[in-house]
Design brief:
With 1427 residues, this protein is α+β, with helices and mostly antiparallel strands. Helices cover 28% and strands 27% of the residues. The strands form eleven sheets. It has a five-stranded mixed β-barrel. The chain has a five-stranded mixed β-barrel with strand order 6-7-8-10-9. A five-stranded mixed β-barrel has the order 11-12-13-15-14.
Length: 1427
Amino acid sequence: MEEPSFPRGGKEKFVTAVEDKNLKRKQNDDLFGKANTQKTSKKGKRREKAPDIDIDFSAKLKVVEPLTYKTLSEGMLVLGCIREIQSYHMNVSLPGRLTGRVAISAVSKQYSEALSSSNNVPPLEEIFFVGQHVVTKVTSIAMEKSYYQVTLSLAPDEIHSELTHSSVKEGMVLTGAVTSIEDHGYLIDFGIDSLRAFLKKTEVKAFRKAYNINELAVGQLIRCLVTKSKSSSTSTTLELSADPSAVNEALVPRDSGINPHLVIPGMRFEVDSLMPVGHGVAVKWLNFDGYVHVDHYPHQRKPLESQFSEDETLSATVLYSLPLVRTVFLTMQKPHPFSLECKDPNLATNGVPSNCDVSIGEVVDNAEVVSTSFRGLTLKLKKSDEVFGFVGLTQIPKMTEEEKLKLLYPPQTKVQCRVLKYDVMDRLLMCTMLKDKIKDKMLMLSDLKPGSTIHCQITEVRKKDLYLEVNKHPNLKARVPSIHLSDTHVSDIGKRFSVGQRVKGRIISVDTEKNIIFVTLKPSLVLSRKPILSYYSDIPQDKFFEGVVYLVDPKFYLVSFFNGVSGKLSLSNIPVELNSKFSLGQTINVRVAKVIGPSKLKLSMENPEEEKEGAQLNFEVGREYSAVVDSIYGKEIKLTISSKDLEGVGFVPKPLVTAHLSLADSLMKSLSAGDKVKATCLATNLKGKGVFTIDQELAHTLKGGMDEELKVYALLPGFVKTIAKTGVIIRTISKNSENSKTVIAFHRSLADDPVEEIRDIFSENQPIMFRVESVVEETEEHKEPISATGSTKLMDVCPYGVEQGGATFMQNYMNTYVKIHSKLKKAKNAIVTYEPGQMVSAKIASVHVGLAEVKLDGSVKGFINSYHSQGAALAEGQEVQAVVIWVDMGTQCVQLSTRPDILKQIHRDQVSCPKPKIDSTHRGEVILTNDDVAVVILKGQCRGLIAVAPVKRHINDSTPIEYQLGKTCKFVFKSLDTVLPTCVNKRDLPNKGKKPKVHPGSLEKKIQKMDSKESKKRQVEIKEEVASDDEVGEVEVKRLKVDDEATKEEDREILDAPDEDEMSQLRKEEIQIVKKIGKKKSDPQTLKVDNFVWDPNHVKEEDEESSSDESDGEEAPKKKMTLAERRALARKEEEKLVKAEQKLLNEEQTPQSIDEFDRLIMASPDSSIIWVQYMAFHLQATEIEKARAVARKAIKTISFREEQEKLNVWVALLNLENLYGTPESLEKTLQEAVQLNDAKKVYVQMLKIFGDTNKIEEGNSLFDTMLRKFRSDKEMWVYGGTFYFQTNQLEKGRHLLQRGLRSLENRDHVDVICRFAHLENKYGSAERCHTLFEHILSSYPKRTDIWNSYVDLLIKAGNVDAARSLLDRAIAQKLPVRKMKVIFKKYLEFAQQHGNEDEVEAIKTKAQEFVQSVASNLPINDDSDVE
């Protein structure tokens, strides 16, 4: 049943929700006094008055309906009852069996300040108790999936926000917070300005005795009775009493003249004139109507009049009042709220009141149906009539309609049910009739043991932890600490978990005092079958236990286990081969080395027995083993190796997980404990623990050179052991670990292209192939002997080119890709629903320089770069149609394209698209590249098919292929077995029938040149001739003795020796240089090796001659330019200079360099546009600090008179900090901007920035600050409404309109409502927009600007007929001539644009008729103007 748009009780004017400010102030002052009915008038300019506000309190309800989440709204005051107290929040029951939550920060302002400044603050359970009634204010209502989350506040300044100091009178009962403790009493704060209140200690004795409290605490809430009041025009002073007997029995006098707008829940009134209505009774409190639901009778199922004696004074307590119509709902329960009898310790311990003869979890076989309603059944559970039960519709088998409920369960029907919990507000036992819940064993907190596995449902997601409800046991609550959320770090808990999500966890510990279970969701603990450590006694020291690191110190770790057990792990007790750097929350395996005292453990990761056994184990390097994943640490995988002949433990470092580092993280995350894998051993240590790889293709590559000896030109595998300044230290992989050697690859030999930063290419433990350049005597360099030098260049490792152009490497990438895809598919990850070629609808989430981030279904991220948006301006929130071109399993995001040409080319059904044949060649357009692959669209016969080609072709390939997007190349297909066909660039394959070319700069090429020489002499003479102006020197290196048994390979060794500085490091043989004089000056500088001349020109000519048959046609040597050619070149240079000068003179041209910006700034130092463009220039290059520096410089440079220019720069700086800075830097910049500029303008701009970037929490907080400072400014309310609607907080925006109308002057109401109507039309409901405009026009028909605005809105929405009908209504009115002229003019323009000639003529005719009618009514000889 839909809720009506407006409250019941007759037709009301729109403005009845808006109270006249003067009337409101007068009513506040007359809260307990007679209202002054005398009207006052003001002289002055006559203007249109707003209609009076008349709220009809005489409207009668035929049915008393309980409070629901739909009728509950933000800003409502509701009486609640505390049902559960946790460390940082309280759960509160509300009328209608609703629930809300009060955070620890929402108790009072004083309590929050005490928490932040002192450690000696009483916890919530000491200042509140279960069953205590509290006055709450609804601050927010959020819908999470199918659950409502209601946030409440108890703060007095929130509860009493509508009261003024003069409205507080003697006899009132208010809730205040203790501000400070004085010698003779307490200062109490009621949250009302200019109100001072003092509570004497003598007036607190009875309260402390009744509630067993030694001393009141600062921030504690206490209900007080006003015993004395002294008021003046500026302030009020109160004396209070906290005696429970006086406070709890206080009634509001009948002659108080209370304003019904200011009734606060918890107030008690005398009531009479009881009149039965549906599901309750109507009563009279003072002169107003109120309603009591049947659940709030003294005895819920007896006639109300039979429950009181004739001479008894009837009283009722206010529960809540609905907004706008102010219908008041009350309770007549006994004992009444706030009574001392409500303090029942049994509620906290057993969950039910002391007078209840039923316990939680009990099954009642013969419960009797008492009544039915649209919400469920009311049951009498046992003989006692003290407490009744209630079964909601969701807890009744196959029941959704009230009519069926009445037929199947008439009164006195016997049913079976189980008690689930007790509702402390409505005083009902909540039950279920579902058979599966009745049959299940109902667990109590005492039944749960640490280590048990439980299924839970998330009830609350906080910033650092989760709160759960144990499935089928709503009385059991659980909490997940932050370090137990997952095995990996959870950066955004809100994206990982959601309310209502079902999870499997394991109990860590049970706190019976606080009624809370601590649970872990870490898969390494939940799925583990290892024994748990839950006691400090009888611990076996030969067993390993799993624990979680909860404190990290430079010298030790503290590790927690189950049931509160913890221990200390020192770094000295961690084996050397293990990574000793553990992170917070990491699961590790440790054993107890020693028990120190009753509750201290010394932990170790070493096992002496395992070490002894390990000495006898020896994994065979190069052999493949069957393994099981034991656990996954941050950067390595631990394996359990088992075979017929041995067992042991192995480790897979992250670089050895796969040859493709971009997929390593995703592959590790997809693995879990217990997974079976094939692992190849690559190294062993003395303890029998090995280093393995689970990438079989990588293992195949590395095994190829394990049998090779360390000699010149040998190709060997290895690991990167250390990265030094001069190069990379490599440890060779050998089948015999004792023969493993250390090799250095110098900086010049690392990659085909020069390397600027070594760590950009290499990392520790990275697998690598290298070619030996030279073998040297072992020298103690880099902490261990260096045996050789090597080259890791791809041209040296693969001198004839990469095998099959990298097809094998590409195939291995796609195989790993498929493994991750299948794992994610089993985990039901939404990323697997996207495939290349698929058309999707995407919403732009954010736009950055050259890149737009989009949101897809399933919370999957997508990206559209500038190439694929074809330069189109994408705006945040825009809906686009795009095609998937690549699904990246490494980053788990989707690459999209909106380019029209690509959308046309890609075949929509990639499965049915024609496939190429193996080894066939096809043309393809490159549309995307990353570090590993290039995505191409095929042309020709397989037009529209998406394929992938390798960008990186080998584990040594440090200079990947660079493709230009949009370029068409020829590709040869090598495989069709994976998700996408794989191909290689044809240029990377040798021509058929031709011998492969050798790379010109490789070692192989040098050796071929040496072999072509005929000389076989045993002496090498190096001569260097130096020429100068007056003398020529010759450098001769003495002959190096070579052993007679030396081979040609040793000659190569000398030729390929390292540079001179490197030779000194490796202790090469000393070369003596002798300088000689006497050569011709004209001789060129040469370097000779026997008959081999190292002359640059000579070598160039030789190379050109020798490689002429290999070259595809190189350019001929440059000839001398003719006179005409020189003149043409001079003209081109002149044209370039002219263009450069014109570019500098063109002011509209955006500068493209720092120098150009500096010139512009010197010319216009006060121009904010140039400064902002300068910032954007640096941001495009991701130089954030430079952009900040430019902004700061601009603020200092721009003249102080140019306030707007300075403000523009501040806004740009705030934008920068919002996108790229930290919350702290943004807050600091904002405060500085507020101090140096117009605060209002800065706040408005910052709110717009938060709205554009969808930062809801920050924007809400900022708007609260703005509202406190500029509450009387109508623009602030509109800006806040814009932010709420823009960020999809529609209910908050609508509630803000009501708040604004109560705070602003009447003259501002129409403008504010009109602008909120436009917001509704743009972001919310068009129907609401039309309703708002209709209400305005009905109250202010003479506002022609509103008529025009409404017409324009309808036209823009395409609703031409409605606009025409509205204009017809407008011209039918009897308005002043000048206003009718405006309306007729608007109608005529409308008809000319959207009508026809007949309509235009008809409007002109109506206008003439109107003028004639006006003229006919004018008196004769009257000079009045009819225009």
